[in-house]
Design brief:
The chain is of the alpha+beta class and 46 residues long. It has one helix at residues 33-44; strands at residues 7-10, 17-20. The protein has one domain. A hairpin with a 6-residue loop joins strand 1 and strand 2 (17-20). The longest helix is centred in the C-terminal third of the chain and has 12 residues, at 33-44.
Length: 46
Amino acid sequence: MSSKEMHKAVCSDCGAECEVPFVPDPSRPVYCRECWMKRRNQRRRY
């Protein structure tokens, strides 16, 4: 099992510091796990 390199980021929704398994792109939003799950669940309702 290989572990992915984690990169520090700031959540675009709540402003919390988080780590993501990809290099954050400044032109795209990054979400912490909690905000990502909230947004994902909202999108699935439609």
